[in-house]
Here is the input.
Amino acid sequence: MMIFKRKQLRQAILVALCAVPATELMAQIPAAETLTIAQASGSSSIPATGEISGVVTDAIRGGFLVGAEVRISGFEVVAVTNSEGRYTFRGVPVGNYTLDVSYLGRPARQTQVTVTGNQVSVANVVLGATGDDNQAIESIVVIGARPQAESEARALQMQRSSAAIINVVSADAVGQFPDQNIAAALSRLPGIAVERDQGQERAISMRGAPSRWSSISFDGVNVIAPSGRRARTDTVPAAIGSAVAVRKAVTPAMQGESLAGNVDIITRGAFDYPGFKSALNVAAGYNDLGGGDQYDVGGFVANTFADGQFGVLLSASRYERDMVTDNFETDWETGEDSQDREPGFEERAWADAHQNKLYRLVRSNTAYSGRFDFRPSDNHHFFFSTIYTEFTDDEMRNAHEFDFDDGAVRTDRASVTRGYADIRTGNTPLQGTIYAVELDSTLNSNKTLESIFTNTLGGEQRFGIWDASWRLNYSNSKAEGGPSVQSAWRSPRGADALSLRPTVVYDYNDRTRHGVKLFETIVNPDGSFSRGAIKRSLDPQDYEFVRLRNNTRLQDSKSISARFDLTREMDLFGQPSEVQFGVQYDDRSKEDTRQTLQILPGALTAAGVALPTTDDFAINDPYKGELPLGYTFRYFSDRGLRNLWSSLASQGFAEVLADTSETNNYEVTEEVLSAYAMATTYFDWGNILAGARVERVDNTGSALVRFGNTYQPALVGGDNLQFFPSVHVNWDINDELKLRVSANSGAARPDFTILRPNFNVSDENQSISGGNPLAEPEKAMGLDAYLEWYMPSGSFFSVGAYYKSLDDVLFTVQRPTFGSDVLNQPGFDRSTYSYTTTDNGGSGHIAGFEVAVSQTLEPFAERLNLPDWATGFGFRGNLTLNDSESETPDGRKIQLPGSSDLIYNLALSYERYGLSTRLSWQYRTKWIDSIGDGDILGDGYWDEVGRLDFKVGYTFNDNANVYLEANNLLSEPGIRYEGDPIRVSEYEEFGPRYLVGLRLNF
Here is the structure.
């Protein structure tokens, strides 16, 4: 049946493509925006016509101006220049015309052009020049290089000329972002909140929506992130793009999976520059915490050949950081789940474990890209691009856990306890003493590599009145884990070993300094306990060997995509319009495989081999962190741990961990056939973009499922048909004010991991987790309204509101019991295990309000009688107020996970005489990270967080710039808590980091 469906899909796409003449299959986005205006002349018959075409360039810095708006006086249409600065008007009646050309921060310019029948009239325009002599305006030249202002002007101009609601981050004047990955660059935009891992920007939340609702694309071609649909933008170095466009309102031409919006990384091409172009960035620095190094190097080279018919661009970049983190984690449980049975236990929550995870990390972002362009004529353009991005995380982790509830008994069943959850001893949830605590330690060396490899063959052609475009794309995303070597150790066991375990005094009154102090344990003759001498260090004799494991995992996602679009200009309802149609076919698959080998003490003892100790691979490096631990310890050697594994494995002691592959491996496929139609109709006051998209999705999932003692293959599948209409109204109130109103819809399909039909069983934790092949897409209908003010000086102000009605929101839920005996085995009743899965909830909403402003003192210089040096000061900021609600599968109303009530960014800047500085502050309020179980403990939150960054640079000329960047100057921590802010479950500090660099541009 599935084979039959796939044939149907392929036949449908072939029929759609064959319906177009074969020559029209070689097309994509037009080389320049083209508009036909003959119908707007008011004549009942179409007069003799010609074309106006040209390139808009910049007199101040040279090069093309992207997003410049070109108008013909007396007509309603507007053309927008593309990345090559090109624009085209078609079907222009014969005659003499005036062209009005505008670009934010540049004086508008008019030029005259004469159109003759069936001819192309060329009108190239240089902005920032006076009259006919093309000399740069002096008042602009004396300002000097302003990379921040010029970068922002380009971004705002692209936003201004868009037919939909977008925000843009543009590379600065020398072609580099000031941030090391795309997530960091996007965090400066309105409504964008960033999620961090180990202090590094990882994923974004767009206007309060979960990160999985945002898609990521390269030059408009969607790609699947290595670990799933969630757009992990730390995988992509910022240096790879010339700009990043965040599309907040979905249009019919965009895939419906962009429920919250789309992050489109716009890469460079050789035709973006008038000739040879190159840039180089070299930087080095260090991390304050731990003193590790960091470096950043990258650049590109581009050139055109054969009178502009061929173009080649190559680029590469690498950023690497050697860092450490300070960490403590505290696990909480309610009084009902603990051993506490004293009066009032229902209102108490106890920490059942406390641990420090001390990381030594080396992280890197690497990217390579190349693009080949061929333009045999103005009507035909072909290209091939290839992009490879890679994120690596080499991690060594010393984890020291104090297992407070090990061996604990209920207080109503024993007169003497070790003190855990026992208020009779004077203990409280925040402070107390616990005797004979078990130590658990994991010393792990983990390696992770995530990569995206995307290749696109495309073209854009003109055939008479039609513009045709096409894209063929192959993408391969991988998340490779391992080989990771993990070792586990714990305190000696048995009744006689209690005195070998430490007594722990814990103090959690300071939520930023959860701490423990260690003492020797004295076991009294009556079975009670006493505190002995202070214990200053964790030593090899404190631990027994538990196991060694070697883990490998590969998440391999492949995608083949074919897209074909047709565009033409025509008269709709008496108004000039651009009509666009398109079809797209996507065939995606993800295969997840893993294997674990382990070495257990029993095998070594049976062979007469001495059990390893932590001393076998310990080193004597000093503690690299600053968090007061209350004890000392020894780091381990990565090479020593791996040599220990290799030595024992080579002797035949390694065995495959049963059920790991069988219960985790899966394959999921997805086929999407979509089509859309939309029209942009122009009026003297603006334009309306309206249309709809329809998508047919077929999913299959295969895995092994355990039935008793055997595994049997399971194959499940489903399909759905969805319809996404949208309308976007753009009202140009005047030359400076623009009002945008949008109604749109979308759906986020469940991640591949959710759709897998298998279970993961942990007998150690008595838990089961599994996928949900029956999960439905998450759906939304949205309304947006934004007022934007683009001032001639380059200043900007906007205010907007948005609302999304949500349905079928997915939640990770933990059910108290699995409730089925299908996974039971002799000696294991797994029906009582807790069960974690993902399921659809009910309805909900996201509503919010955004304000953004960018202003310098320069426009007020004459009015305020300011000295010239003072005009370089500026302010940039944005604020988002957000409200959300969603219904969990059990009917509880909560704030949408990942959503903050308040997000804002503030930046003070100074740019004058080549000096460029920026002091910026980012802030977001708390947000739900996990759904809790029970009213006492509550949901899990990430606490409010801010980040202070500083950058200063000096531009010597158009070719050289030096800079200093300082990030996280206030050493803001990451804090996670359960229900009450005092119950901190995770605390991490990362420290400031500094980078000094040189950028060259030729």
Remarks:
- The longest helix spans residues 2-18.
- The chain has a mean pLDDT of 86.
